[in-house]
Amino acid sequence: MESMMKLTTQNPLSLLFKFGIMGWNGTCADNCSGHGECHNGTCLCEIQFDGPECHVPNLSYYVAFATVFFLLALICLIQLVICIVAEWQRMKAPSLLRACRVTTQKLLYFVVFLAAIVRGAYFTSPAAFEEGWSRSIMSAYYPLLLSGSSLVVCFWAEVFHLRDIRWEKPQFLSKSFLGFVTFNIITYSLLLAEFMTTRFANTTLEEKSFYTHVFNGCYAVLLFIVVIFFLIYGVEVFFKVRGGFLLETTVTTIATSSRTPTHSDPGSESADPAATRLFVSADSNPLPQQIINTSQLHQSRFGLLSQAFMLIIVIAFLFSETLSEFWKKKVPLYSRNWHDIVFRVVEIGVALWFPCVLWNCMSPEQLWILNPKRILRKLDLEPPSKQAGQEGTLDKASQATDEDDACFSKDCWICYDNDRQDVGPLIQPCQCRGDVSSVHHDCLRRWLVESSASADSLHCKVCGSAYQVEQGTRLDWQHGFTARHWLQTTAIVTCMCVSAAGAWVTIQIFEDPMIRMLAAGSALLIQYVCVRFLGLNTVVAYQRAKVSALSIVGGSGHVATISETVAVDIPKTPAQAHI
């Protein structure tokens, strides 16, 4: 009876719209709440909304993105903790306070963690926040993204401009610290101004939306500036391969033998015969091509271009949101939904880029983003051309004597068996002298295969000279994949298949959107981790196969005789002189 009384008190026209009696004229109740389009009396909602009148949030949309952002935050938090623990374990006198000191890597983890948490909190339940809080939480993602990107730019700027700084150890900004702080003060001042305008100012919803679009445009301008410098320094360091990290002015004192004579001009200053000072000028010739790690260089370039491309897409989307009043109503609903989904996916990709390039928490000195010297196989204190010239000034007689002494007792420094015939010839592949000067070809190649994961594996660990190698016509995959690699690959592929099958079965059995999204998100996370490990496993196998196919060039191990080094002048007798 009460329900009948309520129906009689309502407007008859609204009842007709509610029960679809007047649906024949193609209109929808409340104009689909302003969140969709009406087609033949049926509301087609925007991707963020659901329901017959588009008045409730789309649960699947928000749960999916919230799950991804929270998983991303969890990954960053775990990597941050592992980074702190790894640094603590490397200390001679462990100190938690020193392990937690601010470094570039830790700050990047923390910033991305906050950005993922903020965006995940928004997608968890946007209706749970008030209008001002919801808009502020939505916009807080971009200042944090600007902080992470500007930190990378400042670090690369120091790498390019500064010299005599060792980048192998975790550290923070030095010369560019004030610039980084100033830029972030401007960024977070905009966020504070947006929060004050949308939260405490007495403005209407239309005005709040207008202010939000204006501030989004400001974030887009700042992000565009960051991308410009990101590309400038990235191209200089990782494409042109030049900068202060290559030009280090060092002074090295090399003790020489007392038998080494000093060659000096009469007018020059007297030099110490026991030591020779070698100076490397800052404007020395570029490093030779053979010390460039091509694989690492291409990976660095791919990572640089991928992040720049995604940042440019985010800038374009922010500008489009700023000008949404001019185009959104003119574009079909289907296109607007795809626009929103692609926008959110690219935002995830931009944040995901940081933990991907900072994956190696245990050895941050091996990260190309934080140590551009990873693109070099070996950075000597002197260019090889100068080293060769200085070695040529040694006394040839003493050098020949040293070679003679070493050649009479040559043994392979790996197997110590000169009689073996199944390991190739005995060669001298480097500039070492003495007991470690000679090695069997196949013994050395097997040694290089086992240490192929190291960036400078094709260099002698003693004298530092590069081995002269010849590339094989094809890779030796038989030695690339060991039993351990096959076992790991099988386990990874099995895990990927099981996770995908488990997610598919869960989605087929359960109809709850929350359970489905959790199953899909968990499967995607497992697939991501497995693909990562599978890629690393394949790269290691490829390096082993490539090194196994190399042919090492070196001097033969024959024994030098006195006739090769000493010329004896025997005077002729008078009888011989007439012949």
TrEMBL record:
SUPFAM superfamilies: RING/U-box. It comes from the Eukaryota. PROSITE patterns: ZF_RING_CH. Keywords: Membrane, Metal-binding, Transmembrane, Transmembrane helix, Zinc, Zinc-finger. Signal peptide: none annotated. GO terms for molecular function: zinc ion binding. Residues 404-470 form the RING-CH-type domain. It holds the Pfam family EGF_Teneurin. The chain crosses the membrane at residues 59-86, 107-129, 141-160, 172-193, 213-235, 302-321, 341-361, 486-507, 513-534. The keyword Transit peptide does not apply. This is RING-CH-type domain-containing protein.
